[in-house]
Amino acid sequence: METRKGFRNLGIAASAFLILCLYGHTWAQAPTARTKPAQSFTLVGAGDIASCKNLEGARATAKLIEQIPGTVFAAGDLAYESGSAAEFRECYGPTWGRFKERTRPTLGNHEYVDPGAHAYFEYWGEQAGPVGKGYYSFDLGNWHIVALNTNCYAKNLGGCGQGSPQETWLKEDLAQHPDACIIAFGHHALFSSGVFAKHAVHPELKQLWQYLYAAHADLMLAGHEHSYERFAAQGPDGQADPDHGIREIVVGTGGRSHDLLGFAAPNSEVRDWQTFGVLKLTLAPGKYTWEFIPEEGKTFRDSGSGVCHNQPNASE
């Protein structure tokens, strides 16, 4: 009887010891660190925006911007017809000017109806970059955003070619961000299917493109043509380059008017010339998505995704 009781006590003790070891091991483990979700940023906008002759288009696209938090890019020709102080105040101001504090602008040709674009620089202040230059850069997370002044023939700008002040600045700026994901935006495009080539295509930008391409830039955003057009990734000479090329998106759809497009240029993938709207970019570590969002009542859309050239492994 005593032997049986002893075995029973021994079994209870062994069970208790086993439980203590198991739970004791659990308690001894370091707490598992929770992985924070990677932060993403929104960049949204268009070019060719507010016409004092008819503000309906700008009002329609402003309604879209109103619903999208994030940084706004305004890709030139912001206040028609001449970028005057009155046009900025009375036409841009009540529409896209409501988002002025979160907007990053760049100059269009209509801002240069006044050769010094004085009203533009006065309206935007420090947000416009150095007075008389209008090019600058900023960061959204690990994305480096470059605002270019593509009005290469503007008085006192000094051009866009080799040795020009802007080309020298761009080269130095990109060298300081060797591992960044890169987006550039400006008013004019190097590539376009616009009907009138002289208006649509701007070979004077090629030198700037060459530095962007060498730095493995991912996207170039433009306006000027009042339409939407997305190109496949390509190099400065127009050669398709899916691995290292720059994807150009022309989004001159801010509300001014619509321009017809001609025959598709090489590498042109998507085109529309009947819809006002905005381009929304979602920028995450090592990758991005784009989405064209149309004005209310229109159905044209475009969307897709890409991987950052300089950080291909960060997207995994």
Report on this model:
The protein is of the alpha/beta class and about 325 residues long. The protein has one domain: Purple Acid Phosphatase, chain A, domain 2 (4-Layer Sandwich), CATH 3.60.21. It is about 25% helix and about 25% strand. The chain has seven helices and 15 strands. The strands form three sheets. It has a seven-stranded mixed β-sheet with strand order 6-7-8-9-11-10-12, with no helix packed on it. Strands 5-3-1-13-14-15 form a six-stranded mixed β-sheet. It has a two-stranded parallel ribbon with strand order 2-4. A hairpin with a 2-residue loop joins β13 and β14. α5 (about 165-175) runs parallel beside α7 (about 205-215). The protein is globular. The termini are far apart.
Provide the fold topology.
Layout lengths: L1 H27 L12 E6 L3 E2 L4 H11 L4 E5 L3 E2 L4 H8 L10 E4 L11 H7 L11 E5 L2 E5 L17 H11 L5 E5 L11 H4 L5 H9 L4 E4 L5 E4 L15 E5 L16 E5 L4 E8 L2 E8 L7 E6 L9
Parallel strand pairs: 1-3, 2-4, 3-5, 7-8, 8-9, 9-11
Antiparallel strand pairs: 1-13, 6-7, 10-11, 10-12, 13-14, 14-15
